[in-house]
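F.,

This is the one I mentioned.
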């Protein structure tokens, strides 16, 4: 075949494929070579793979391993939920900033990202039943004299922008206080604590504790405060997507009942939940 011919053949094949995909291609047009073979039965409509958005910079809940795969507690939970509920999912790394908009835009079908269910967020999206309890935890340098949240009033404090940590620190220091340093990710805030650019970081306990356990050299300690409310993580879907929500809740109930939730919990946090 000459190049021109090959190009034409490729273009024709491409056009046939497009027509077939669009549902208007005739059998002969899509596969002329197989004209003598009996027509294949129409393929069953493939279940749509749900796109799950996650800000994969939040170990041990979601992160990217050396191979670039998205892994973590949240990922295992959603995979188990999907299996139970007969859903197919794929994970797409999605920056926290703007993550909630992706639901409305239809770019993501659901979000898992250690997302705290809050009354404000409930106004713009729907949440599954809670699947994890958390609270805020303070990280400071080991030699800091901080013993409670109030002590952060006079310090430079790092938070991940738009998180519940940002919210509580905003309440203490005043939302527009220049002493609040807002970062794109929680690891960046913790790096800045190490560098001395901030004197404290407030973030979810699981992530702060994990960072300390794995970065002994950073010279941090944690400070807890009984004033921090209990937060609950949920899976988020577009507001009004009751069908998907019901499937997710069904899956969650299923993995809690059959022990898989506890196994996943133990694999990441070392002991059975509750
Ligand atoms: N739980 C906190 C919140 O909902 C922080 C979540 C941040 N998650 C993440 N993957 N970066 O605001």
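My design for it:
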């Amino acid at each position: 075949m000459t190049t021109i011919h090959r190009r034409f053949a490729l273009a024709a094949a491409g056009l046939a494929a497009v027509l077939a995909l669009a549902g208007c291609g005739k059998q002969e047009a899509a596969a002329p070579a197989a004209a003598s073979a009996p027509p294949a039965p129409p393929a069953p409509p493939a279940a749509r793979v749900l796109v799950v958005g996650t800000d994969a910079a939040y170990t041990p809940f979601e992160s990217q391993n050396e191979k670039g795969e998205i892994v973590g507690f949240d990922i295992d939970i959603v995979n188990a939920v999907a299996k139970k509920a007969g859903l197919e999912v794929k994970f797409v790394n999605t920056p926290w900033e703007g993550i909630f908009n992706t639901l409305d835009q239809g770019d993501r079908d659901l979000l898992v990202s250690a997302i705290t269910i809050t009354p404000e967020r409930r106004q713009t999206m729907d949440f599954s039943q809670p699947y994890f309890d958390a609270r805020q935890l303070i990280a400071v340098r080991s030699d800091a004299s901080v013993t409670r949240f109030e002590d952060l009033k006079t310090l430079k404090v790092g938070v991940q922008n738009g998180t519940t940590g940002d919210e509580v620190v905003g309440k203490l220091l005043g939302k527009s206080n220049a002493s609040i340093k807002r970062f794109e990710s929680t690891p960046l805030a913790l790096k800045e604590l190490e560098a001395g650019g901030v004197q404290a970081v407030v973030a979810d306990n699981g992530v702060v504790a994990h960072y300390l356990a794995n970065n002994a050299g950073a010279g941090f300690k944690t400070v807890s405060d009984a004033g921090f409310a209990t937060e609950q993580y949920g899976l988020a879907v577009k507001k009004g997507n009751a069908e998907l929500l019901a499937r997710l809740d069904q899956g969650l109930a299923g993995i809690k009942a059959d022990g898989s939730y506890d196994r996943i919990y133990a694999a990441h946090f070392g002991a059975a939940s509750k």
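The longest helix spans residues 3-21.

Talk soon.
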